[in-house]
Structures are given as structure tokens and as C-alpha cells.
Amino acid sequence: MAEQGVAEENVPMSSAQARQLLVDRIRSVRYAGTDAVEQAMRKVERHVFVPAVSIAAAYADDVVITKRDRDGAVSSSASMPSLMALMLDQLDIRPGMKVLEVGTGTGYNAALLASVVGDHGAVTSIDIDEEVVSGARVALDNNGFASVRTVVADGGIGEPDGAPYDRIIATVGAWDIPRSWYSQLADGGKLVVPLRWRGQSWSVGFDYLGGQLRSYSAVSCGFVPMIGQEDGERTEIISSDGFVQLVVDADQAITSESLVGVLDQEGVERWSKATIGGGDSFDGIWLRMSATDPGCCRLSAAPEAIQQGLCRPVIAHRDPALADATSVAYLTVRPRGSGPEGPRFELGAIGHGPSGADLAQRLCSAISDWDLDRTAIPTVVAGPAGSASGERASGMRIEKTSSWLELFV
């Protein structure tokens, strides 16, 4: 009997079984929360959109890389199914709606959208890469989704034919919100976009009313960046050997010129008394800082910098930080015993430079505020560049190229 059991366990799972198991797992973390999204994910076959990988890989809750550029960087992929489910939940799509998708990818997400909007709805999907669109077109046509309209187009321009859309969803990382998205979204519609600011990326759900966007949901995420917005962020080296960098936005006066070598100066530690476990997220600290402190940015350290003891970030390549013209502080941790679920760590900050102590204290204050309510999400308001916000004056304003953001705690 034991040998028979082993043999049964080794029988390959069918695509249908793997798909249902994947959706069960997604539902267990409360994504695919609407019946329409859940049923679409149970119906649409993901493996036919990623034919180069195994059934197991197609139905794993993981990214499937489908194309790289000449330098080896990922240029197109199939996103994690759980993240796709979450974003479809954010989008609140319904039968009969017109939807614009920016970033066609494999075509799988467009198929999910088409399944939800039904025969009386319409889905248009655009991508700047002709090869990507061509591959998705074949997969959509061969699997019952010929009604999806695919267009080779720059996401920054959108697709005016078919506008206004009830919903717009971007499946590429955007540093800016193009003007075309405002003009092509119906008043009262919704936009879901993986938006980057201050070195972080959040899938933000926006309501669109009166020419402005106002967030109702934000979830930390990561996506392949949209082509054409590369100038929005800068990388500034702050260590003499080049192993540590800051990622800052175009509107921030933080430069390598005055910061190179700052980590060679003696560090000042500040501690918050707030603790986390090994699996706890601290992204909310970063989000809160971006709404309250103009120096918020991202520290990225190569392994060599950590091995040499130059810095002690919590996560080497994406650690929340504060910086000014001469100084920097970044998030760190130290062991603080164990709890029922394992080791605990106290959150703190290490500052370097003339105002390093002040920056470290400001970071610790942000940690303490976050610790009072770890689920609180600042509101993000956005509008076209040059327009007035109409909000109270206490928000943190971030200037981009085509739009502005204002964040309110």
C-alpha cells in the first residue's frame, strides 16, 4: 500500500487540477475576493499563455519570465497570479464594462478581464512591443478570446479609440501617470496602476472624479517598468567604492556630489522599540514616510558593502531611507528575543553625516507612528501637471512630469 501511495503521489497533476489548486491557494489569502474574478481564474487556462514552461510552473504562484532585453533585463513576463487577482479585485470590474489594459504581456490577464466583462463588455490591451502583442494575439485567438482587441501602442499615449473607458489597468510599473490616462478614463471610472515614488512601488486603486484621481487601495508590489519613463528616477552613489546607492526621484535635490563617502563617517543609531517577526512586512513605514518627509528615498547596497560592514540595511537592495544634501539614514534591525512565532527584531535607524542623527530620529518617529496602526494607508491624490489639487495644504506633494501626487496621512 505504501508503494502504491508513493506511485499515486508521483502521477503528474492535470492542468485543470493544478489550476483549481492555485485558485484555492489564492482564495486562502483572500484574493480573488469577488465571485466574478474567482470564476474567471478557475476558467481561464494560464498554461496556454505560457506554453514554454511546465504545467507545474504555469500554475505556481510565481512570475514567469517570457522575454529579456539585450542586457538580460526582464522586458516582459506573466505576473504572479495572486497579484493579478489582487489587482483585479482593486479594479472592481463588472459585466458590460469597457476596459483598457496597458501592458499586454502574455494575454492571460486580458483573457481574465474578458471573462469578467462578458459578451456585452469590451477589452482593449496595448503594448509597445510588437512581438509581445503578436504572441498574445495568437494565444487569445486560439483559446476563445478573439473578442479582445490588441494594439501595438505606447502605454504613455494610451488608446483613444474606444475611450472613454470604465476601467484602466496597467500591468507595467509606472513612475508617472500619463495625461492620456486622465482623458481616456470616464468620469466615475477607476484606474489601477503599479505606481512608483520615493523608491517604492504600490499597486494603487484610484477613483476618477472631476479630473482628479483619489486612492481607495494600495498594496506593495513590483513590476517590469514601463518604457519611456526612465528619467523619473535617478541612482546616486553614496559610498566611495560605489557599492551603496540611493534611488531618488527627479524632484529631489539629493546628489552623489555631496554624499559620496558619507557612510565612512561614524554612524549614529536610534531605536524605536517597535518589533517585527521574520515574516512581517514593514513596507507601511516607507509609505508613511513618503507622505510626511521630503527626504524619503531608497537605499540599495551590494553584498560587498554589507560584508565589509559599511552598512546594515534590513533588505540590501530596497531599504527605506531618508537623505538631505549632506547626510543619510536608513532602516536597520537588531535581535530582540523570541516570541510565539519565532525571533523578534527591533526596528531602528542608522544615520551618517552632519544631520545623520536628526534623520535617524525622524525615521524612528515614522516607525513609531506606523506602529500605532500598522494597517493605516495614506491617501494618494493625483492630477495632471499644472492643475490645482483642491486639497488641504498639509499633504506631501511630489512633482512628476505629466502629473503630481499628494499624500495625506
Automatic annotation (TrEMBL):
- Is this entry keyworded Cytoplasm? yes
| Entry-linked InterPro entries | Methyltran_FxLD, PCMT, SAM-dependent_MTases_sf
Its GO biological process annotations read:
methylation
Q: What is its EC number?
A: 2.1.1.77
Q: Does the keyword Membrane apply?
A: no
The record ties this protein, via SUPFAM superfamilies, to: S-adenosyl-L-methionine-dependent methyltransferases
Gene Ontology terms, MF aspect:
methyltransferase activity
- Pfam families (UniProt xref): PCMT
- EC category name: transferase
* Subcellular location(s) per record: Cytoplasm
> What are the UniProt keywords, alphabetically?
Cytoplasm, Methyltransferase, S-adenosyl-L-methionine, Transferase
NCBIfam families in UniProt: methyltran_FxLD
Family the entry assigns: Belongs to the methyltransferase superfamily. L-isoaspartyl/D-aspartyl protein methyltransferase family.
Under what name is this protein listed?
A: Protein-L-isoaspartate O-methyltransferase
Taxonomic source organism: Antrihabitans spumae
| Lineage, highest ranks first | Bacteria, Bacillati, Actinomycetota, Actinomycetes, Mycobacteriales
Give the gene name: fxlM
